[in-house]
Amino acid sequence: MDGFKMVDDRVIISTKELCELLDISDRTLTDWKRNGLTQHSRGWWDLKHVLKWRGQIYNGDSETSKSINLQQKKLEAEVAFKEAQSELTRLRTDIANGKYVDKELVEAELSRFFVIFKKSAMALPRKLTSQIGSYVEPIEARRIEKNLSDTVNDALNQMSVDGVYNAKGKTKKK
């Protein structure tokens, strides 16, 4: 058979036959050689060695297998790097297009909003008590105002706590 020969119980294959068998080009085989694939002799390749080198026959203890694993890790790292670069480019484009707001600006606006909201919420009990003051006794009006103030303070405390808020135990009216 042209293109094949047996040497020391090993199948040795010509470059042309190897390229046809693996459906690759001469250029690919040259690149493999540059990346560490060794030839049996000029124009001839040890088929088993080539297959091991390409990872088609796994041999966990061989240096070739370790080399393939390193090449695979390098390829995976390059893919991850390209994806990270793509994500960074997308973020920069989004920032340039105004999709994101400066953190300091958001913090300042939210702080200003919550100061105003707190003042308004804290004024509610007094306003409501002044509205119902003519219908109830003054002591009852103050009790209602205190209960409303406690409820508003509790709500504001719930908004200001990170995580789960545990309200103080309510005392019963005697």
Give structural notes.
With 174 residues, this protein is mainly α. Helix content is 64%, strand content 7%. It is built from 6 helices and 3 strands. It has a 3-stranded antiparallel β-sheet with strand order 1-2-3. α5 packs antiparallel against α6 (138-160). The longest helix is centred in the middle third of the chain and has 34 residues, at 63-96. 5% of the residues are buried.
Tell me the β content. 5-15%
What Rg do the Cα atoms give?
Answer: 39 Å
Strand order of the largest sheet: 1-2-3
What is the typical, i.e. mean, pLDDT? 85
Task: State the shape.
Answer: rod-shaped
Give the topology, please.
Blueprint: E1 4-7, E2 10-14, H1 15-22, H2 26-34, E3 44-46, H3 47-53, H4 63-96, H5 103-132, H6 138-160
Antiparallel strand pairs: 1-2, 2-3
Question: What is this entry, summarized?
Answer:
With 174 residues, the protein is mainly alpha-helical. It has helices spanning 15-22, 26-34, 47-53, 63-96, 103-132, 138-160; strands at residues 4-7, 10-14, 44-46.
What keyword list fits this structure?
mainly alpha; 7% strand; rod-shaped
